[in-house]
Design a protein that fits this description.
The protein is mainly α and about 230 residues long. The protein is about 75% helix and about 0% strand. The protein has a domain of about 160 residues: MetI-like (MetI-like fold, Orthogonal Bundle), CATH 1.10.3720.10. The longest helix has about 35 residues.
Amino acid sequence: MFELLSFGPGGWGGQLLSGAAMTVAVSLSSFALGILFGSAGAAAKLSHSLILNGVAEVYTTVVRGVPELLVIYLLFFGGGGMAMALAGVFGYEGYIELNAFTIGVLAVGLISGAYSTEVIRGAVQAVPMGQIEAARACGMSRWLILRRILVPQTLRYALPGLGNVWQLTLKDTALISVTALAEIMRVAHVAAGSTRQPFLFYTTAAALYLVLTTVSTAAFERAERYASRGVRRA
């Protein structure tokens, strides 16, 4: 067992750690992309535009209503065609092929963004309107209100929900192993097939995910305490 998990010539330790690094890279990229999608979706849902509100509603309903693996398959088999069609609008006629990393980040980012939309929307609505009205009465501009009142408090209210979204994003990266991207599950699957020791490598993969989620939980709890400093607790 120790020889198979070692970092020597016959061990899989290096590949597993490389897969863990790839999982973290995909998770961070997807989570950041999801925050962008979520912020745009929340702004659309909170706007007075029926069109923007409808587009955001369709986005969150469809993405949250279908299996995550189906979203990945749709982008894996149709992502290149969609990119070429979009590029054709701007006059580019060349061939576009999306690599596994890009497809994984886009797919998991879309899923993360659908959940982040509702988290951010709820956080914005949790900010007391009296503070916004008081800021307007003091003559603060929209940008100043956004920077000093809305964004800091929205972040504080959204952190617990975004922590849950991060955990989902981290675990959803296991699904992109179908694209042959060498993340934790893909490496564990290949190692299990090569050595005929599936229990060993899938247990190791579970341990790696538990380490990542435990560290992430501690980081978000610390961030929540920092964001809530100076806030009176009931």
